[in-house]
């Protein structure tokens, strides 16, 4: 299963009914799986002087940009202190 390394989020089931379907109870829409926007990234962490290959969602990348790569990866448990 595809899971973000930082946020630990995965895909969800979506879909539903249009208003016309609700009115007539005819021909319901199907369920659809909504996937995360996962990216494979090679990130350099200067504190440990290493590159890391991780599969992370764009939301996780924004978190890393805001809080810093080292702090975010440490909190996610991907690197040891």
TrEMBL record:
Name of the protein this chain belongs to: 50S ribosomal protein L28
Any one of the GO CC terms: ribosome
InterPro entries membership: Ribosomal_bL28, Ribosomal_bL28/bL31-like_sf, Ribosomal_bL28_sf
Keywords, sorted A to Z: Ribonucleoprotein, Ribosomal protein
Family the UniProt entry places it in: Belongs to the bacterial ribosomal protein bL28 family.
Molecular function in Gene Ontology: structural constituent of ribosome
Taxonomy, superkingdom: Bacteria
